[in-house]
Structure formats: structure tokens, C-alpha cells
Design goal:
mainly alpha
């Protein structure tokens, strides 16, 4: 079976859009984590963080960065920006569930944190798609 070149290019652009958005969201999150570790707001890497305020802080900026990452996915998508953004959210959901499983077996912090990340993955993806759609709606 021969796959048309246009389909291959579209599949590559779709995959690239999702990957780009995930990298943007992860880089923003991990970069912010690093800054907060360096300025000693967070405990050193490798130590668990049980302070609810610090976990809420991390959750707050991760939600914003997840929305931004899904916006980037929608922006870079060759077609169907909302579907692409939701695909990124689905991947975020799976990764958050994996983080929850890791948290259950290791002393990384409270279990509610990865659970809330998982619960917010799809709403963040949807919001990223909505923001993209509103910013790029045809002007009447």
C-alpha cells in the first residue's frame, strides 16, 4: 500500500505540532521548577515536597503552562486545531496518571498533586484550543 506524500506530510506536521506543544509546556514547567529550586523556594531536587502551598503554586503555573502548550499545538496544527489540542491533553492525562503511579511507589510528595494534574489535563487542552480559536477567529 502506497501512502500519498500529502498524507505523510500532514501526519508529520500533526505529530510535530503535538510534540512542539508538549515540549513548550514541559520546558516552561521544568524551567520554572528549576528557578524555584535555585532560589530555595522549593526543596532541593530529589527531596519530597509536601507543603500544600508549594504544591498549589506548582499546580497553578502548570495549569497555565499546559493551556499555553495546547495553544501552541492548536497554532501549529495543519488542520483541526481543537482536535490537536485535545490530543495533547490526552497525552498529558496519560503522563499525569503515570506520575500518579510513580508517586504511589516513591516518596515524591502528596498523591493528590498528580491526581489533580490528571483531572485538569483535558480542561487545559480544551481551554488552549478555545483561546486559539478566539484569537484566530475570522473578523467580521
Amino acid at each position: 500500500m502506497v501512502i500519498p506524500k500529502s498524507y505523510s506530510r500532514t501526519l508529520l506536521r500533526s505529530s510535530g505540532a503535538v510534540l512542539l506543544g508538549i515540549v513548550v509546556g514541559a520546558a516552561l514547567s521544568l524551567g520554572t521548577d528549576q528557578v524555584l529550586h535555585v532560589v530555595k523556594v522549593y526543596p532541593p531536587w530529589g527531596q519530597p515536597m509536601y507543603d500544600p502551598g508549594l504544591n498549589l503554586l506548582a499546580l497553578a503555573y502548570r495549569i497555565v503552562f499546559n493551556i499555553a502548550g495546547c495553544y501552541v499545538i492548536a497554532w501549529a496544527a495543519p488542520y483541526g486545531p481543537m482536535g490537536h489540542a485535545l490530543t495533547g491533553g490526552l497525552i498529558g492525562l496519560v503522563l499525569s496518571l503515570a506520575g500518579g503511579l510513580a508517586a504511589m511507589t516513591a516518596d515524591l510528595g502528596p498523591l493528590w498533586y498528580p491526581v489533580v494534574l490528571a483531572l485538569t489535563a483535558l480542561p487545559c487542552a480544551w481551554l488552549g484550543g478555545v483561546v486559539y480559536r478566539r484569537r484566530h477567529a475570522p473578523k467580521a
